[in-house]
Amino acid sequence: MPFMLTFIAILVLLALLxxxxxxxxxxxxxxxxxxxxxxxxxxxxxxxxxxxxxxxSASFILVAIPLFILMAxxxxxxxxxxxxIISCQAWIxxxxxxxxxxxxxxxxxxxxxxxxxxxxxxxxxxxxxPEMRNHNYSQRxxxxxxxxxxxxxxxxxPSIVLVVYGVLxxxxxxxLFIAGIVPGLLTATGLAVVIKLIAHTTDQAPKGDxxxxxxxxxxxxxxFPMIVLxxxxxxxxxxxxxxxxxxxxxxxxxxxxxxxFQRTLSFMNFNRCVSGAIRATVMIxxxxxxxxxxxxxxxxxxxxxxxxxxxxxxxxxxxxxMAIMILTLLVMGMFMDQLAILSLAMPLAxxxxxxxxxxxxxxxxxxxxxxxxxxxxxxxxxxxxxAAAQTGVPLSKIFRGILPFLGMEILVLLxxxxxxxxxxxxxxxxxx
Length: 432
Known about the structure:
Function: Part of the tripartite ATP-independent periplasmic (TRAP) transport system.
Mean pLDDT: 81
Structural class: mainly alpha
Largest sheet: none
Keywords: Cell inner membrane, Cell membrane, Membrane, Transmembrane, Transmembrane helix, Transport
Helix content: over 70%
Oligomer: single chain
GO molecular function: transmembrane transporter activity
Subcellular location: Cell inner membrane
Family: Belongs to the TRAP transporter large permease family.
Low-confidence stretches: none
């Protein structure tokens, strides 16, 4: 009984720290250390803290994080976002709803280069939203498309969320990247279908400018090198030529060459790119390390072991337990960002999924997809907040516009749950 009271007190402390807006990394680290101190004593807890922090932050695979972030920073500073949108609009913007579908297409390109959902949403809100409004798109639809398009960066490789999941669960990041390709494209196709339906049933999405082949070809000239770089980075991982960290280094070198040759990056912007990559990396590594401290506390309390015993002896089916986990993650997504959800949930959810004999690659994509949906759901809906801040559209209007897209997102999630081969087909063909 005293043990359970201590565990409940630790959970209350964690909740209080989060309520008072302490960063999730520090909240988990502090509560994990306090729990270890109560469980083992201060001196052993300090020894565990020292070893855990070093082991988790010294992992070689973490090298991929600053490299992918730096690649994204360089390409964003190099005006890639605006050029990708212009190119997609030139090819399909003349259809009814074409500008919105072009925004989704540009979001796929940006997702494959940026890897951050909020950064992708902010970039699209600054570039694509004014263009749609200039062509008489409704505020509601334009802001909603910008919000949902940004979520593609969570699934489409190189996703930072997939990297963090791979580090936390010791799952192959290369296979996670490849596994995210089909679900990402499936999601983008679903979003385009919803846009088409809205365009043909309402007056929210009129036609754009007439199609001009010369303009479309010319606009693609600057985007083509980025697509080649994207194919090289993902192809190197898929073909077994390079590890994710090596492919990330290739991506940084390629993006630097592109922005230098296109003369779109100043020395001052380069400094900003490096600083931004360092800040984002420190935040992510802190989350990974502090999550490991909290996981160690759970291990010493044998909470994870007790949960696995419950799973082994319960009468509930695998599907029921999986549904409970998915619903829990969806509820967490209403209040927390994706990295916080992973760091809090994976110490318990991942061992449970492995005990139920679920594939770790498939489970990672399902979790990532669930977290992606959380970025759109009220009351937090982080992407909706970013879009609202950038566009000035009221949150309530954005959430109403997101509703039909949410239905499609849930449909894609169900397809991934019931048909695992959608996720596992490409990774099964990898050379290593």
